Structure formats: C-alpha cells, structure tokens
Amino acid sequence: MKYSSCLRAVFAVMLLLPGVTAFNQETVLMTIGDKPVYDSEFTRILNKNKNNLSGQKLTLQESLDMFVNFKLKVREAEAQGLDTTASFKKELASNREQLAKPYLMDQEVTDELIKEAYERGKWEVRASHILIGVKQDAPAGDTLLAYRKAMAIHDRLIKGEKFEDVAKEVSDDISASTNGGDIGYMPVLQVVYPFETAIFTMKIGELSMPVRTQFGYHIIRVTDKKPARGKIHIATIWKAFNYTTTDEEKAQAKEEIQNIYLQIKSGADFNDLARKYSDDRTMAIRGDAGFWIGPNQKEPAFDQAAYGLKNPGDITEPVETTLGWFIIRLLEKKAPDTWEEAKSVLSNQISRDIRSRKSEQVVVDKLKKEYNYQLNTQNLEEFYRLVDPSIFEGRWDANPALQKVGVLFTLGNITVLQNEFAKYLALNMKKGTVRTIAEFVDGKFNEFAKARILEFEKTQLDRKYPEFRDLYHEFRDGNLLFEIIDKMVWSKASRDTIGLVAFFNANQSKYMWPQRLDAVIVFAKGENNLQKMVAEYRSALLKKCKDGCDGVTVQNTLAEVTARFSGNSFEVEDKLFAKGDNWMVDQVKWKPGASDIINEQDAKVFVWINKLIDAKPKKLDDIRGQVTADYQDNLEKEWIKVLREKYPVKINQDVLSKIKL
Fold first, then answer.
1. 283 pLDDT above the threshold of 80
2. If you ran DSSP here, which 8-state letter would residue 486 be given?
C-alpha cells in the first residue's frame, strides 16, 4: 500500500484546544474547520522530517499541503469516533507504555550499565558453580540455612577438596552430576546479573564467596578467560534427527551426511547440495546467504566446530548434535562490535534484563524526594495484624483490610489509602513460600509503592517533558491516520470489486504489455570443454526447435548434451521478457532462434528465442495488485476533495511567510 511509507515518517501534531494560545505564546497558522493549528506544530514537523523529506525536494507549499491533508484525515477520524474505540485506546495505551520507559530509567545509571556490558562483552569467561537452591522469596530462616550450607561447602573447597567431586555430590544444579559444575564459556548477558558480575570480576582460579541469585546461592570458580570471538557467518547442510528417531534412522542420517561430505570434498558445489539434500529448507533457499551466530548460541559440539573454521570457504567434517548431523561452511568472520555498533543493541537488551531495576530504583528514590513522599509507618504496620498465614495459601480474607481508609502515604498531590494496598494484596494473592507476616507485608508494600510512584510519574510526563508529549501525540495521530485510511481507502478498495473493475476499464490504456520475447536463457558452467558443450547445445536446439521450444524441451535437450561432459552443469530461465527485464536479453537480436554465445566470468550464456509477442492490453488478474494500488490513490484523492469541503482550511499567509525550510 503506497501510503505505508508515509506512516513511518508521520507528521507529529499537538491537538490544542482554543484558548491556550496566550499560555503557549503560539501563533495560529491555520484553521481546519473549527480547530486552530499552530505554527509551532508545522515548524516542528518540518525540522523533524528534513532528512526524510530532503530526497523528495519538496517546496514549502508542498510540505504544507501534505501537512493539511494529514490534519484533515485525523480530523475526520475524530469525527467518526475512531479515537473512542476500545481497540484504539488499548493500542494507544501500549504505545504510551513503551514511550514512557526511557523516562522511568535513570540515564546515568543506564549508561553505566551499557558501558559495563560492552566492556564485559570483550571477553568470554569459563566458570564452574555449585548451587544451593533457595527461592527468592524464602523466609529469612530458610535463606540463612542455605547460606550456611553454602559456606560449609566453601570451606570444604578451601581445604582442598576437588571442585568437580563436590559439585557432583551436593549441587542442586542437576547438570552437575555429569559436568561437575562446568558451565563452559559465558559471554555477557547470558546468565543472571549477579552471577555475571561475579564471573566477570573474578580472577582465573579464584573461588567466590556465596553469590545470591533468584535460584539460590552459588559457589563459583573461574577457570579461564579469553577474548570474545565475535560473530561468524555460516551456511549448513543438515540431516535431522531427534529423540524419537530410531537407531536405524540415525544410522541412515549418518550415512547420508557422510556421502554429502565426500561429494563436497570431490568438488561438488556446497549450495547445490544444500538445495538438494538439507533438511533445513530455508537453507536450501538461502544458499550463500547463510546466517550469523554468536558464541554459545548453539550447543557445544556445533559451536566448537563452527568457530574452529579458519578461512571463508572452509567446511567442517560432519558434526553430530542433538538435532542431527551438520556440515558447516564458514562464509565470513566478524570481530566483536565496536562501541557505536553495540550500544543501541545493548540498550535494548538491558532494558529487558533484571539489571534495569537498578536504574529504575534510582528514579523511584529521586521521585520520592521530588514529590515529597511521606509514609505513615503506623498505618502500614497495621497490616501485620490484618494479614494472616492464609495468604500463603491464596485464601486470605481481605474484607477487614478493605474497610481501612487510613493514609498509607502521600506523593505530590495524591493520597494513597490502606484499602488500596489491601486491594493490591488481594489481587496478587497466590500460593507461595511461608514467611513471617512482617517480611511478606514489607516486601509487597515496596512493590506496591514503587508501582504507584511510577504510575504517578507517567501522568506527569506530558507536563515535564515536551518531547514526550509531542511523540505521544505523534503516535496517537499516526494510529488514527492508519485507522481512517484503512477504513476509507485500503479496505474499501479491497471490498469494492465493482468499482475496481470500472476503474480498470476506464484506465485500460495505462495497463499495457509492451512488446515481449518468449525466450529461454541458458547458463552453462564447468571446466570440461565448456565452449564445445555450449556449441552443441545451440546446434541441438536449432535442429529440434525449428518451430519453437518450451522450457521442458530445452532442458531435456540440454541434459542429453551435458551427460557427455561430466562435471559441467546448466541452468535455464524460461519466461516472457520485456525490454529492461534482463540485460542479456536486451543485447541480443530479437528474432527467433539462438543468439550468439555470451562469455561471462565463469559461465557461457546464450538466449533461445521462440517468438516475439506484440504489445497488448493486460488482464486485470495479471496486475490486480498494481491496479488496486492505483485505485486506492484515486479514492484518496477524491476523499481529500470531500474533506476540504467538509472542513474548510484557512491559511494565515502572514504567519506562513515567516516559516523557512
């Protein structure tokens, strides 16, 4: 749909009500119907979209026309009530949540976390660990017991017991029974933050004190560090099996992959074999496109084999994994990302990682001071009596607490009451670890207070940050624009089959096939008398195809000739060609028969021409997509005329004359 590109650079707007001009010191640039539009809106949009619009070399008047059309459509969407639907409100609320996230994080702390992750990303660390499991919300007593157990294990290791043996004996990580606690090489952002911090700050051979994560306590030993390996670009041939595959089927897969490997070593083309035999059908299509992987993204056997390749074009021997057999081909190596390449990716990853809470908590602490947070400790501690152990079974009776209307805390101009916290407890009640009531209440209150403080801040963002307000309105109006265009243009064009046919018939002269060739392009490659083979191609076709040949006949004829030249191969492209479709077709003479042979770098090419086809009208079914797009454009132009009559546009030329591109 042609308008979709405009949506990506949608004009940002602020829909201001009459009467606020004096407050904002703004000047009315135009009125659309009964609504004013201010010069600040238009100039902000011009400045924001200079890069997007510069390639179009629009004049000020053309930019103004685009802006007016946009405003007219949004105005009509509002008139039709599209901004009041439940689906629109839900989508807009989701947009606002995403836009608010950066404002609820402390930028300084976030920048430190990004830089920290980048520096850690220069290394891969190999470590072993012993886990003493204890839940994140376990009672203090259980947590203390787990810590003491971890310290006792630490003492055993200090006294000289072998880490691997102790891990197999006591670790709550079930993999330790086979790997002795060795978790291999870890890049950054692959394990939980406290664990990551430990392994990236320890020295080789160092033994950690117990490290607390949501899984429990870890005793960690770093066994090696090496520079990060960066990413590799690979292609694969895959013969699949899984846990349901029989031994006989696995043996068959092994035999097949070995045969493929021998063909590659004998000179067969890797991509040809991938297309024919790989169980990864996307790989069969991609061929040389391949895919990128980073360290430890695949299981160890695959990772070790792939990263063991030295030069582009090198291949591995067949590698067995839990997913089957692979032959891996190296296409390209890439060093670890530079700071400029990495920072935006790291920013997105960190925003979804638990470490982002560190930045979020800094913001909460600042907001408490900014909005004069006042806690009523006495009213909070009343919940120590109102809540009982039944809450750990998910059956607490919240009614007595819901009757309490004492003030829990104040923040800015809001007052939060006890019954609001009681409702939060009731809605978030579920079976869980039994703890002391005071521990539970304090923990839940911290969650509740943090959520309320951040929610309050979200309501202040429009006031505090004009750039947020503008961006939010841009999303609002962009969503409205999409909805109204879909309703009045895109979907309408799809549904109105009678109108589409009438439009096509009225504009038939625009939809013509040019003169075309019914032709077959023959590509041949190889090193076994290629010139002679191609000459025989032409001769054979000239004999068989005096009255024309279809693609199947051409291919069968070529196959007969190729069979006498082992190691060579051919491909054909059989279609109708117009001028400009293919440079080889463009340079040959347009007359039936075989063209001269064209020499390419590693191939010989010629064109077999069956016949010339005169220019003729296209059928609607052949170009329905193009006609639909043109019909949409026509509907939109007619719709704009209607909107300009419905909402008269009056431009203040004096104000416009002061605006410069």
1. no
2. I
